[in-house]
Hints:
Layout: H1 4-15, E1 27-28, E2 52-58, H2 62-78, E3 80-83, E4 86-89, E5 94-100, H3 102-113, H4 117-126, H5 130-138, H6 149-163, E6 178-185, E7 190-193, H7 196-199, E8 204-205, H8 211-219, E9 228-231, H9 237-251, H10 255-265, E10 275-280, H11 289-298, H12 302-308, E11 317-323, H13 342-376, E12 384-390, H14 397-404, H15 414-430, H16 432-442
Parallel strand pairs: 2-5, 2-11, 5-6, 11-12
Antiparallel strand pairs: 1-8, 3-4, 6-7, 6-10, 9-10
Helix pairs in contact: 2-3, 2-4, 2-15, 3-8, 5-6, 6-8, 9-10
Amino acid sequence: MINQRSIALALSLLISGCTSYGVVKNAPLGAGPATKSYSLTVRKRDTRPNDVHIILAFSGGGTRAAALSYGVMKALRDIEVSIRGRSSKLLNEVDIISSVSGGSFTAAYYGLHGERIFTDFETVFLKRDVGGALKAQLFNPFNWFRTTGRTERAIEYYEENVFHGATFADMIQENHPLILVNASDLGYRVRFSFLQEYFNLLCSDLASFSVARAVTASSAVPVLFHPVIVRNYPGCESAAREWLIAARQRAGSDERKIQLIDGFASYLDKDKGEYAHFVDGGITDNLGLLAAFDIIEAGGGIKTLVERFGRRTPPRHIAVIVVNASTSPEPVMNKTTRQPSLMETVSAMSDIQLQRYNVETIELIKQSSAKWGQELSTPDRPVSTYFIQLSFRGITPERRKFFQRIPTSFALTDEQVDQLIAAGGDLLRSNPKFQRLLADIAK
């Protein structure tokens, strides 16, 4: 049992001014043997009919988010559709999975292992007391005076127990969707996706970069964890600058696109920034939706994306499915005259900002997905779009109470995990827009 003196010492170490340093483990471009890059061009399905294109977005929310998104994926695996006489699991029609924070564990594991996720992910991650293991490292006296900090210990845990040394070169697999693991850059103040196109801005090689390190960055809640730090190498600015100039011209007077491109361009001023500091992707995109939107828009639009995915003709059906694991528990402060604590105040402020931000994001993607359908449609080949929102609002109030009580942590009970997995499947199957998608595919 941990005594009070140990707790006090550990807490004093956490809030002290002791300096810790991030371990930089991203290699410059060309430092190793030539390998395929993990980029927009790795996902090609030339041998398959081009009728269905699915984008999944997994939100943050600790193991709650990981389990709910896993439940949705399990349901997609179990639903078979007939596409021009070919029977296919709907999960096989997923082209992109964009994720932040807790959702990134599910997305990255599937990107590495495909359907093996349904064999061992519950044991490897969902039903493991990850939070307890990380706390145990915190109270281990051997770790108190390490200069590398708590984040490196989390990376070591995920490397050993979840991802087993996998790099993004291991993510390049036939017929797997493109996985967008997303983080927030504290210094440059932009969303950052672990794709080679983004690493080109850093003059760095993503193929050799650790998946565990990327997922840790995506889920590194500020203050609780230090940022994951990468080096912004010099030497390749000219090629990246040409791409940004073209993207800036395509942006025209669109302020949102201009801000996005300006954020990317800041990485090219090497004199002002030698390192980038990545933290929780939920800070800049709690639903995982904006990262996919950025890539589509900055890359030249939906038509360009379809071409880069190797499709000969546009798909007939484009579905964006967002799995939102956020909860709205009743605030304790409403039941007392006691002044809320600093943590309660910060948490409430964050919830308010995230809820408003989520609403704006959803409206943006709704409008954009409809526009994508119009841009891809031809008189003889119309393209239908479906924006499918899955959240706890889609279940009965009584059942919803159970999920509202599930904390944002990496240590849930087996019952909570099982219920979340079941809820993911139920929410998908009962969604009216998803039912319309299935009906339209069957026509």
